[in-house]
Design goal:
The chain has 284 residues and is of the alpha/beta class. Helix 1 packs parallel to helix 10 and helix 8 crosses helix 9. The chain is globular and about 55 Å long. The model has no long low-confidence stretch (mean pLDDT 95).
């Protein structure tokens, strides 16, 4: 178990990212299959942390698609066993990605997420990205207002650098940061972000923790080291990549996504894999 920042809210070492259930209308599973996947993950694998966003949808006509699937899957007693994180501040006009960090938009987006998730308070609400047209202090301040009203339990940020996190922390108590990071996609600036999280008691939730679309399916081909280490441990490069994150920092909680139960089960095994110092040195 790992704790989301200083909240005292403990979740399993490996969570689940729900983007792939909704983002691509031509490739996503049928909704009933997505619901079954989530229910099996909770019931059979102990998945207890699910990350989503209102913008995980094909376009602006179905905002909240992923959130609605999660609400249906967790209806009843399952909801008490799972922490759900969502995000606001990204918009999908005609399927494109854009940003809207205006306080009035974030209020409307949060209230829509409350309805989609069928809850009166969101466990973790994250600003999806900074809108360059809006000072981040105004966007984060809007989330702080929603938190004071009881609509948000905890606040996180996404796609922020260390300086921006510090600025956001002046407006609200930030408990988590969600940025892109993996063993094969490492921006040197992320070291500073992870160090900031460790020093200030924030959780770090890497998105695309296995490399991302187009990379993850061929992870072993992309890295001989990953492939060799996986063979030595009788596992897969995906498990090694997640185990590397878990050993990289106690602040890290990876949230890999998948459409298939067997891959979800595989990802959950990362918490059981211990990489040796030689393994870690080779991956570095």
């Amino acid at each position: 178990m790992r704790t989301i920042g200083k909240t005292g809210l403990a979740v399993g070492d490996v969570g689940y990212g729900a983007m792939h259930l909704s983002i691509d209308r031509d490739r996503r599973p049928a909704e009933k299959d997505s619901i079954t996947l989530l229910q099996r993950g909770v019931d059979e694998l102990g998945v207890d942390f699910i990350d989503t966003a209102d913008a995980y949808c094909a376009d602006h006509t179905e905002v909240g698609h992923s959130e609605r699937i999660i609400a249906e899957a967790l209806r009843g007693e399952r909801r008490q066993r799972v922490t759900v994180a969502t995000k606001g501040g990204s918009v999908r006009p005609d399927g494109r990605w854009s940003r809207d960090g205006r306080p009035e938009h974030l209020r409307s987006a949060c209230e829509a997420s409350l309805r989609a998730l069928e809850t009166d308070r969101i466990d973790l609400y994250q600003l999806h990205a900074i809108d360059p047209a809006v000072p981040l202090e105004e966007s984060v301040g809007a989330l702080a207002d929603l938190q004071r009203e009881g609509k948000i339990r905890f606040i996180g940020v996404s796609n922020f650098d260390a300086g921006e996190i510090a600025r956001a922390s002046g407006e609200a108590e930030i408990v988590s940061v969600q940025n892109r990071f993996s063993v094969i996609a490492r921006d040197p600036d992320e070291d500073a972000v992870i160090e900031y999280c460790e020093a200030n008691g924030l959780a770090y939730l890497p998105w695309n923790p296995i490399g991302g679309r187009g990379i993850a399916p061929k992870l072993g081909e992309a890295s001989t080291a990953l492939d060799d280490i996986a063979r030595a441990h009788s596992t897969t490069p995906h498990v090694v990549a997640l185990a590397w994150l878990l050993q990289r920092s106690p602040a890290i909680i990876p949230i890999p996504g998948t459409r298939r139960f067997e891959h979800m089960a595989e990802n959950m095994k990362a918490a059981e894999l211990h990489l040796s110092s030689d393994d870690l040195a080779r991956l570095e």
